[in-house]
Each structure stands twice: as structure tokens, then as C-alpha cells.
Amino acid sequence: MNISTSPPLRARGLHKSFHDHPRVDGVGFTVGSGRVVGLLGPNGAGKTTTIRLLLGLVAADRGEALVFGRAYRDLERPATLVGAVLDAGGLHPARTGRQHLRIAAGRAGIPPERVEIVLAEVGMTAAADRRSGGYSLGMKQRIAIAAALLGEPKLLVLDEPSNGLDPAGMRWLRDRLRAFADAGGTVLLSSHQLSDVQDIADDIVVIAEGRVVADITLAEAVAAASGDLEGYYLQVTGTAGVR
Fold it and tell me: Could you report the per-residue pLDDT of 170-215, keeping only the tens digit for each?
């Protein structure tokens, strides 16, 4: 299948249970090229499980998860198509940021010159030779984002990428993701920072209790709640009265 004619991401009727408890229950949505899509939902709604299903990290009980028209495991050189940030805490504490990126590049067959490029892009060149055990959460997050960018992917899948970032870092991330999509890339962004999503997203998918409760454009969502994404989110998730 030609990836250029297939949507970057498509979920069809995804189901996944753990210990007989449904975590994802019939999730389906499509992410188009050149779009930033906010994946929203309360804690435990099934967002991270959905992302892990899309990336082939867990197997679905039923349904289909496609990346550029194929199961992730069937992609050739996936790092050149997909960059993912799932856990900024996955760095080996005894390795430096530069070492981590060099290892990741080597495993993916990516030229080592890309390491210095992405270090500069995420603002970590000066700290690249420090052991990651001494990094702040925000610094670890920047290295994780750098790793996702190594292969110059066409799709970014990011689970809470702004965790630990200071205001300048959050502004940089918003600008970088918007520019990435405007240049033809695609972003699936899971975040609890609704203001950040409202600043950059084109579309939103909202999951509650393992099911998609909204799949619309951002403009439609804010129009339905007088310009307030948070109000719309609270309405469709049924959490408006939760404290």
C-alpha cells in the first residue's frame, strides 16, 4: 500500500481489556495529513492505551490500528515515518543525553549527524554531555522529543509532551508542533493542558470511559461552548461537576 494515499493514523473499532476490565471499547477515529489532533480525556479514560495500540506496543482484542495504512509492525524503517514520546523517564541515568540519542540513532539506522541537529533544535546542546540522572523532568522531556525527531518523521505521536516543561519550553513546543503540521506533518497530541491544545489543534478526539465521545474540529468544539474548549470538554466528558 502506498503510504502517500493513506491517512497517517486510523483506528477502527479498537477494543482492549485488562483483567476483564475494558480499557478501550470500540475506539475509532482518523487523523489526516497536516493536522494537529488533540487526544483528550480524563485520567484513566483510555488515551494512553489507545496510543499504545496504534503503535503496536499492545495487541488489540478486536479492531484495527493502522499507521499510513499498515500495522505499525509492518512499517519499513518506522523511525523515518513515526516519532513518539510516551515516557520521558525512560532514559538510563548513567548515560548522557548525547549518548542516548546516538544509541537511538544507531538502532534506527539514522545518520549520527542528526544527533547534533536535534540537540540544537530542542535546546539541549549545552547539557548534552551531562548524565541524564541529573536532568530535570523538563530536560528529560526535551531529550525524548529530540529522539522522536531523529528520523525526520512524517507523524508525531506525543503523550503529555509538555510535562515538566517551563513556560518557555511549552511555548517552543507549541510553535514547533504547529510548524511541523503546517509543513505537511501530522501530530497526535495527548494532553491535559487544554489551553495548549486550543492554541495549536485543528481537531479534537475526546475519550471517556474507553469510548470516543467527540471527534470534531476544534472550531466546532469551541463554537459549541462559546469559544471555550474547557467548557466543551467538561460537557462531553460529563465532568462539569467533578472537583
Answer: 999 999 999 999 999 999 999 988 988 999 999 999 999 999 999 9
Radius of gyration of the chain (CA): 18
User: Distance between CA 147 and CA 85 in Å, rounded?
Assistant: 8
CA distance linking residue 184 with residue 180, whole number of Å? 7
- Length, in residues, of the chain: 243
Task: Answer yes or no: pTM beyond 0.85.
Answer: yes
User: Cβ(216)–Cβ(204) under 8 Å?
Assistant: yes
Residues 6 or more apart from 99 whose CB is under 8 A from it? none
107 vs 84: CA distance, rounded Å: 15
Task: Using alpha carbons, select from 43, 18, 5 the residue that is nearest to residue 237.
Answer: 43
- Is residue 83 within 8 Å of 148, Cβ to Cβ? yes
Residue 188's nearest CA partner among 172, 176, 204, 208 is 204
Residue 38 near residue 203, CB atoms below 8 Å: yes
